Request: fold
Amino acid sequence: MSYIRRVSATQKIAFYVFLITSVTITLFPFIWMLSTSVKSPNEIFTRAPTIIPRHWTWQHYWNLFAALEMARHMLNSIIYAFGTTVISVLFNAMAAYAFAKLRFPGREKLFTLLLMTMMVPGQVTMMPVFLILKYMRLLNTFTGLILPGTAAVFAIFMLRQFMLEIPEEILEAARMDGCSEAVIFFRIMLPLCRPIIATLIIFTFIGSWNEFLWPLIIMLREDRYTLPVALANLNGQFNTDWGLLMAGAVIVVLPAIAVFLLAQKHYIQGIAAGAVKE
Amino acid sequence: MLASHAVGAQSSPRPVTITVWAMSAEGNLIRRMADRFEAENPGIKVFTQAIPWEAAHEKLVTSVVADMAPDITQMGTTWMPEFQKMGVLAPVDPETARDPVFSPSRFFPGALTSTMFSGLRYGIPWYVDTRVIYYRRDLVAEAGYPKFPSSWEQFHRLCVELVRRNSRPGRPTFAFTLPNNDWQVLLMFLWQNGGEMFPHGASGDAFAPGGLEGALSYLKSFFDEKLSPKDSDRDNNSVNLLSLFETGYLPIFISGPWMISEIQKNMPQMAGKWATATLPASQASISFIGGSNLVLFKQSRHKVEAWKFIRFMSLPENQLRWYEISKDLPAVKAAWKTPALASDPLLLPFKIQLENAKSPPPIAEWEEVAEVLSRVMEQVLYGRIPVGEARQAFTTQIRRVLDKPSASQSGLFRLLVTIGLVVASMIPLFLYFGGGVKSKVSEKFPTVPVWFLLPAMCVLIVFLFLPVLATFIASLTNLNLSGLNNFRLVSYIGFENYLRLFKDPVFRMSLRNTLLFACLGVPLNVGLSLFMALVLRRKFLRWKPFFRIAYFIPVITTMVAVAMIWRWLYNPVYGLLNIVLAKLSLAPQAWLTNPHLALPSLILMALWKGFGYNTIIFFAALQAIPNALYESIEIDGATSWQQFRYVTLPMLRRAMFFVIIMTSIGYLQFFAEPYIMTAGGPLYSTMSVVLWMYLQGFKFYNIGYASAMAYVLFLIIFLLTFVQRKIHARIERTIG
Reply:
């Protein structure tokens, strides 16, 4: 792949045509989702559907807000997603710092053991975690909802890879100045890790924001349901109101996109550093 | 102040609150009935709660296990046996049973049998549904049938005639859509043909003699003679079915009462052109009866008040009120006498059919037996199993489900084995850490790292290591739904689960599919994301952030929306892909229902959903390659390919290794796509290990078996990762 070589106009046009085609393919379902959410039911059920609705209607959104206590469920989702994100970034970064920059016996072995747990499919540990929370009397609480997600091996791995790249000299200089490890971690390490932290914020936030089964099982009362769970309640066993469903999907996906946009600059730097060096 | 408070408390005792769960829309609508009930019964408050249908089963099971079950819940009729066997449902006590409102003769017989277990009643039918024929009255009349045919033979002739009249050269149509893997359809036709399931209970024969073969060959004839599309939509409720109904491409289908309002609401222009009819009969016109019961949990502390609520819901006038609110059909026959129900011609066939409808046999493992019925039925209709051998195939597989390993063991024995297993699994850990730690422990163990590790490690030990260990112990037991609720019923069965796994044809199939998916999917994903990253890196390119976001959008879009669109893309009749094929004069394909195409179709979908993730990793890794390297090799006159081969690729090897390992682990845990798109079908061609594990664990609650599967998968991933590491190390050494 030439990096410096001159590119002719036709080549450029070909590139843009290719890019625009591929972007259309990736964005198509998303646009379809937006379009279905503003179509009348009659128009959704046609044989030759169009992207641009012939008759725009906001009725699905009104129905959605009429059927659900949107503010309540949105708040629950925010508590869950933000709580998990903030605490897990802190816990994982602390652990990653120990694995990357501190010395203790058995460090590499413990780390390898952690990596191995990534190979156990997550679905199978759900029931034991549920039972453990039951014995801890944490069911139906936000603590029980958030706590199991506050440490993640994948995140520790990504953070550790990033931290390994940070030159030892910076830390040594700080240690010479008499800084404690806590000060080094919070004042030097965390700011330097901003890109990878942004990355993990997106992953963790989107992951818990979209999660369905876990918040449903943990939370007993409807007023503690998160947004995806509350939305699922709008479907019948046999019939689906597609317009309503897509309006709900739009509402769920918008905050996720907002978080992605806000962090994406850092995000792209962060993921690179995590992956490039081993 | 104090006095008045005391007086107030005396005159109106604190109201009793009962909790009632219902599913999704019904869970929201039942509030209106509860309001009315509260007005009539001032001493009782009703707390209603909606549970999403799609996970209602999981929610009910976990709430029972956690002792958080409500007083009353709605329960689908097919779930009754397993919850009854768990011993969590309260039987209707003799006194309540004498109440004329609950008199058995007041309910439809099929609905009543779903509540009966060894002579006792558990729960009261709330509403019913049954399956009838929906047909295009205009087209059927044109074909010479002013009345819908009532016998198998005539019905078949009608279908032949419809196809003959409506098909145009090059554009065949069909008469009748019929899911080819739906146990309810199988049971209906079996009953119509005089057959019966489990005539002597669960331990006896699976099928009564006769009936089965005739029903299967009748069903098969619709596919073989191209009267029914083999690729009918898996979920018969979708947008697709109705638009095909409107165009006359599929003028007949079988469905339940919810379809009436669905058609009326979404296709008002069809009014008068369609009607309903009872199912055709071979020996009798018998349909499947579904619906929901209201059941009371044993744990309930307000049984008297709860029965009052159930009684209220069973009164004919309230059954009618509920019909008006929800359009659910009343289970109480008296409610059908009112004009709203009695005079509706669309509902009349339902009324007749409800008197002639049966519920499936009361077997606790019904969900799993039903899975066998659906799958073997599919194999017969696809011609993989001859009709003559179907009985044998059904029987063998059903026996596999029902004959589960068990052993009676004393509590002490089980405790000792558990302790033994926990200790035994610690030994490899000690050996693993052994040498390194011991020699240095005598020195001062540094405390600072401990503080840094503590929070994350505590969480990981409690919520990851402990569950992983518990899963291993569970894999050596027969833990199931009853055992989950009462650990005394669990027994150790050694490596029986693992042995069963290797004899399980579905597991072998799922293993093959998973490996195939990873072997094709990982290179495609990695190749495409690398290519995209290289394209995005072009210097002249503008709006780079826009493209990066666009490629990432599929990663964050909700699976529900993604699935809806991809179903439409893959639709055999008017999906975009087949429209494109038609433009190119190529034959249309059955993307999701052809056993050879279904897995590749899912691979394509997963590629679409996932490549943006790796693109960003590669893009970032490319940014880190110094330009100087390209400049120097370009001066030497290297071609683009040589630049890629000798600069880009070697510089990317670490990112590549990371991406390949992570993508492989993800692809080997393939789950979401088959779960939402194909449920593992057709003919298990998209069943993955994690999906089969999930079905075993969370649908059939064979938790011991599912745990064994998780460990086998873990071992496979571990070995593959190990091999990949070795290869990577070798490459590193050769490159230096």
